[in-house]
Amino acid sequence: MDGLTSSDLHQRKQFYTSSICVCVLSETLTQHHFSNRKPSVSMSKHHTRQPEAVDVFLRTFLFQMGMTQTLDCFQAEWNELEQKGLRDTVQVDLVPDIYSDIQRLEIKLKNARREKKEYRRDTCTAAETLVKAEKTRDFHRMHHQRVIQERDTLFTERRRLRNQCDIYEPAILRMNEKCERLLQQTALLTLKRDNKCFGQGSSSSSAPRKILQQGQTVKQKPKQSQISGSSRETAC
């Protein structure tokens, strides 16, 4: 005892504790298993699976609880009992269905809690996404209302401008008629002026012919007659 360390004492203590637990649990299970049970027809219908062995049940339980050191001690002692032939197969046979059902229900409960956490996280994410979507929806709705107001304003302005155009159209027609009359008058005046200038030019060109027919009376002043003819043409 003096040569053992604290870790060895702790391991031995765990070993003894696990041994006692296994013995108590095995006795309880065997008593419950071999007691006068009267399974109902419904239970026999639903529980048609193969019952689980005690050692497998204990290993699974210890592993799920994270008791690795106790599991190692149990496996070592269980193997030692098997090697020595001290394990009574009649006394320790199978685990009752109730314990397997409890263990299975605990696994389902654990999975259900994990799924609940995942669903809650997904719900929070969906709620945040919904809030963002509602904000985006409100923004686009306000923008749509503003666009509708601008469209109504533009329609009103277009209607006003169309009414003004309808009002100005008769005045524009009258002004166009006046403009056409003025253009016609201007064209007539231009034709009259051109005809007048053309008549003056023909009379000035016939004068030298008369002078040539009369003779040499105009030879002394030819340049003056040409200058007077050119001045008349420029005047026209």
UniProtKB/TrEMBL annotation:
InterPro entries: WD-F-box_domain-protein. The keyword Transferase does not apply. Residues 200-236 have a biased composition (Polar residues). This is LisH domain-containing protein. The lineage of its organism: Eukaryota, Metazoa, Chordata, Craniata, Vertebrata. Keywords: Coiled coil. Residues 199-236 are annotated as: Disordered. The keyword GTP-binding does not apply. It comes from Cynoglossus semilaevis (Tongue sole). Residues 95-122 form a coiled coil. PANTHER family: SPERM-ASSOCIATED ANTIGEN 16 PROTEIN (PTHR14604:SF3), WD40 REPEAT PF20 (PTHR14604).
